Amino acid sequence: IDMFADSPLIFADLQRIYLRQEGKKPRPCAVLAARGHPGRALVLVDRCQGRDQAEAWRGAVVLARERDLPPVAEDEFNLDVLLGCTVQYVDTTRLGTLEDIQELAGQIIWYIHDESGHEILLPAVDEFVVDIDVEAGIIVVDPPEGLVELYQHST
């Protein structure tokens, strides 16, 4: 499993996960065993008995109920709470809304939609993300010059 969590150990305490294939409802799976693997987690679930069944689930999204996850520290949050937040520049000019978060090539990428409908991909790195105010629903960014314009002038 390619992970968005900080540690593959998150699966060690989960008794149930859900596998969702594109266009289908999530299917519950009992977690039978889990261990870390470089950059990933190896998880054995009751729905996958053997390589062929596991292969049928390739590309599925792995979900867990929030109440089943370990609690986050007081100064931390789950990334999904950022979805729908307003993204603005340091000067408070609105850039858009954070619509999706994906991990690509080991890096977290934010998908921001501006008012004109352009999709802007922004690496969520300390150099570009100045501040996150979860309670106010505002993310302040300082992307490198030309990055946002690249997406806004691509159509």
Concise account of the structure shown:
The protein is mainly beta. It contains 2 helices and 10 strands.
Order of helices and strands: EEEHEEEEEEEH
Give me the number of helical elements: 2
Which value, in Å, is the CA radius of gyration?
18 Å
* Low-confidence parts: none
With strands numbered from the N-terminus, the spatial order across the biggest sheet is 8-7-6-5-10-9
The computed structural class is: mainly beta
Number of strands: 10
What is the percentage of strand-forming residues?
35-45%
Separation, N- and C-terminal Cα atoms: 35 Å
Provide an overview of this structure.
The chain has two helices and ten strands; from the N terminus they run βββαβββββββα. 8% of the residues lie in helices and 39% in strands. It is mainly beta and 155 residues long. The chain is elongated and about 55 Å long. The protein has helices at residues 51-56, 147-152, and strands spanning 16-20, 27-37, 40-45, 61-63, 86-89, 94-104, 107-113, 119-123, 129-133, 138-141.
Summary keywords:
155 residues, mainly beta, 6-stranded mixed β-sheet, 4-stranded antiparallel β-sheet, 10 strands, 8% helix, elongated
